Amino acid sequence: MGVEIRRIQTGFVTALTKIKNKILKKIVVIGASSSSRSINRKFAKYAANSLLLDCKIKELVLNDFEMPIYSEDLQRVSGVPVKAINFKRVISNSDGIIISFAEHNGSYTSAFKNIFDWISVIEQDIWSSKPLLLLSTSTGSNGGKIVLKHAYNRFSFNYKFNIPFFSLPNFHSNYNSKSGIIHPALYKEFLATLSNFEDILNGT
Ligand SMILES: Cc1cc2nc3c(=O)[nH]c(=O)nc-3n(C[C@H](O)[C@H](O)[C@H](O)COP(=O)(O)O)c2cc1C
Questions:
Q1: Domain membership flag for residue 54
Q2: Is residue 37 a part of any domain in this protein?
Q3: Which domain holds residue 100?
Q4: Percentage of the chain modeled with pLDDT above 70
Q5: Of 19, 69, 159, 168, which is most buried, counting CB atoms within 10 Å of its CB?
């Protein structure tokens, strides 16, 4: 209940702020999976569309950034691929980033890890000090918690902002495309996480 009231209040304040400042937030959305049927792509976009902010949403589809497997030798010979530079440019030009992680064998998908490695050699500040929201979901009861925790531990080290995170287990039982998250307790937790991210984006 508290969370719902807070969201109504946040929505009201946001509406006023929008009128005053005409702020448009550029939000980058990443489903960290190469699957064409990725539930994490769906979930990341759902989160972005649930924000109570005036947003321009830009999705980075990992399959558009397929590159040779990162190696120091390859970098030395050929430099950083243009695709990695383009990916990083979109990150740098954003106001915030939402990543939802698919978990493969307890870790990042290869598709995400390869892009992560390539962009990590462009600049030490990999996520360009932008506000981050980290999510994960899976078809099982773990909800991709292992990869989410791993990403959180890595990304939050010495980071400029707190990083809110949320994991949705049993995607097909707890989510549908019409209503979004249908499990009441998980929905409440999701809204609280989203509010936290909105506050960070608003600098409040
Ligand atoms: C190679 C492979 C490894 C997987 N490993 C895990 C795992 O370690 N933990 C888990 O919860 N699910 C695992 N899964 C199941 C994925 O979580 C599930 O396929 C989910 O849909 C992936 O998200 P996506 O649809 O966004 O790609 C694995 C799936 C594949 C294909």
A1: yes
A2: yes
A3: 24-184
A4: 89
A5: 168
Report the pLDDT averaged over residues 136-158: 97
Amino acid at 123: E
> Closest Cα partner for 94 from 18, 152, 163, 25?
25
Asked if 115 contacts 34 with a C-beta cutoff of 8 angstroms, the reply is no
If you measure from the C-alpha of residue 6 to the centroid of ligand 1, how many angstroms do you get, rounded to a whole number? 34
The CATH number that applies at residue 91 is 3.40.50.360
Average pLDDT, the chain: 93
Lining ligand 1 with CB less than 6 A are 31, 33, 35, 38-40, 102-106, 138-140, 142, 144
Cα of 105 vs centre of ligand 1, distance in Å, is 7
In whole angstroms, give the CA distance from residue 114 to residue 100: 16
What residue's CA is closest to ligand 1, atom 25? 38
Tokens linked to 183: 């499990």
Domain count, the chain: 1
Residue pLDDT, tens place only, 41-74: 999 999 999 999 999 999 999 999 999 999 999 9
